[in-house]
């Protein structure tokens, strides 16, 4: 919980402090400290020859806090294709240790037969992931997971490249912000792009259209316009990326970015219908907010001296307050000032 400090009119000092934040810190109970904190596998990487298959001996190691005493459990492991997240099979080998603190150990064999490996490789699945999730059964459950990366290898050249001539099949498209520090809001005028992550099998040319929509103030409906049409050759990488054009951030408001996969890049065919197949599209929403530099500050900066007295509303069940001081630098920044220091104050 954050509280703004009430500013006092006191004689100035050399440093003018613009931002003072009070943080109420609550004690953690011993139950909250008892938790799983991580898991790992040995080996982390394994190879399975397609012609023979292989049984992997996997050792899982689960770490806990020192206060943890109720063990951990895992119902099953899941084997999936690393690129498309397609589940290939599940293995029900339960692990259930109801007592003890970490490190906890679990030995498990995982068998991949030659027939399974050959079938998966023919489908274009070259790198697999075997994942296990471990949990606690307490009132405050915690969960960790670990995985083994498995590479299918073949000596037979016909098996090694079984799907070189398979047509392109897009399994998933996902949009994210670039750079990642942006989430759903961006300040007016800042540069912004998005990145499309594509998971696929086979090979071919991905064609698509970048489109941006704003909300019509009269109807409340989204109105899309095309930013650019693009194409990219996808060649057995299983995963690839496309970067969007620079996105509109000059005007405040809600925007929706859309990428639509197309059969052709003929603009005359898409003029009346920008996204003929909505099932092959993905969207990302962002809001442009007014540049704070253009708005007046809510209050004048405070000046502090050794005799300054501060007061704030009391918060129930609080044992320590944290006072954070930042020095005003006269510039707009992500931190709203330079960090000076902090002080812990007993309630």
A few lines on this structure:
The protein has 347 residues and is mostly beta strands. It has 4 helices and 23 strands.
Notable traits:
5-stranded mixed sheet, 6% helix, Immunoglobulin-like, 347 residues, 4 helices, 3 domains, single chain, disordered N terminus, mainly beta
Mean pLDDT: 78
Q: Using the CA coordinates, give the radius of gyration.
A: 28 Å
Helicity level, as a percent range? under 10%
- CATH topology description of the largest domain: Immunoglobulin-like
Let me know the largest β-sheet.
5 strands, antiparallel
DSSP summary, beta strand count: 23
Number of domains: 3
Percent of sequence in beta strands: over 45%
Under the CATH scheme, which architecture of the largest domain would be assigned? Sandwich
Uncertain spans: 1-32, 332-336
For the termini, the CA-CA separation is: 15 Å
CATH superfamily of the largest domain: Immunoglobulins
Classify the secondary structure makeup into a structural class.
mainly beta
CATH class of the largest domain: Mainly Beta
Order of helices and strands: EEHEEEEEEEEHEEHEEEEEEEHEEEE
What spatial form do the alpha-carbon principal axes imply?
Answer: flat
Work out the helix count: 4
Structural write-up:
With 347 residues, the chain is mostly beta strands. The chain folds into three domains: 2-25 and 300-346, no CATH class; 31-160, Immunoglobulin-like (Sandwich); 169-292, Immunoglobulins (Immunoglobulin-like), CATH 2.60.40.10. The chain has four helices and 23 strands. Strands 1, 2, 21, 22 and 23 form a five-stranded antiparallel sheet that branches. A five-stranded mixed sheet has the order 4-12-11-7-8. Strands 14-20-19-16-17 form a five-stranded mixed sheet, with no helix packed on it. Strand 16 and strand 17 (222-235) form a beta hairpin. The protein is flat, with a radius of gyration of 28 Å.
């Amino acid at each position: 919980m954050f509280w703004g400090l009430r500013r006092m009119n006191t004689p100035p000092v050399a440093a003018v402090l613009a931002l003072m934040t009070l943080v109420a810190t609550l004690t953690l109970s011993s139950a909250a400290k008892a938790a799983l904190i991580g898991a790992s596998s040995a080996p982390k990487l394994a190879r399975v020859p397609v012609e023979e298959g292989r049984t992997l001996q996997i050792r899982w190691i689960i770490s806990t806090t020192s206060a943890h005493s109720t063990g951990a459990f895992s119902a099953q492991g899941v084997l999936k294709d690393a690129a498309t997240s397609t589940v290939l099979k599940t293995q029900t080998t339960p692990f259930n240790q109801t007592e003890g603190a970490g490190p906890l150990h679990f030995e498990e064999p995982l068998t991949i037969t030659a027939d399974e490996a050959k079938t998966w490789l023919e489908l274009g699945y070259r790198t697999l992931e075997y994942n296990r999730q471990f949990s606690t059964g307490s009132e405050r459950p915690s969960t960790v997971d670990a995985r083994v990366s498995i590479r299918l290898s073949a000596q037979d050249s016909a098996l090694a490249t079984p799907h070189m001539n398979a047509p392109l099949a897009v399994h998933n498209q996902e949009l994210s912000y670039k750079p990642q520090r942006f989430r759903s809001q961006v300040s007016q005028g800042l540069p912004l792009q998005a990145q499309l992550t594509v998971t696929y099998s086979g090979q071919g040319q991905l064609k698509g259209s970048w489109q941006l929509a704003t909300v019509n103030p009269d109807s409340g409906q989204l109105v899309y316009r095309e930013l650019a049409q693009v194409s990219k050759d996808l060649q057995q990488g299983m995963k690839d990326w496309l970067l969007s054009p620079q996105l509109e951030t000059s005007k405040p408001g809600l925007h929706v970015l859309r990428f639509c996969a197309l059969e052709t890049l003929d603009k005359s065919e898409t003029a009346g219908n920008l996204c003929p197949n909505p099932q092959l599209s993905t969207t990302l929403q962002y809001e442009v907010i007014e540049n704070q530099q253009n708005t007046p500050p809510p209050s004048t900066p405070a000046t502090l001296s050794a005799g300054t007295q501060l007061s704030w509303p009391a918060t129930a069940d609080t044992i320590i307050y944290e006072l954070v001081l930042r020095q005003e630098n006269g510039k707009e920044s992500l931190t709203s000032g330079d960090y000076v220091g902090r002080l812990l104050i007993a309630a």
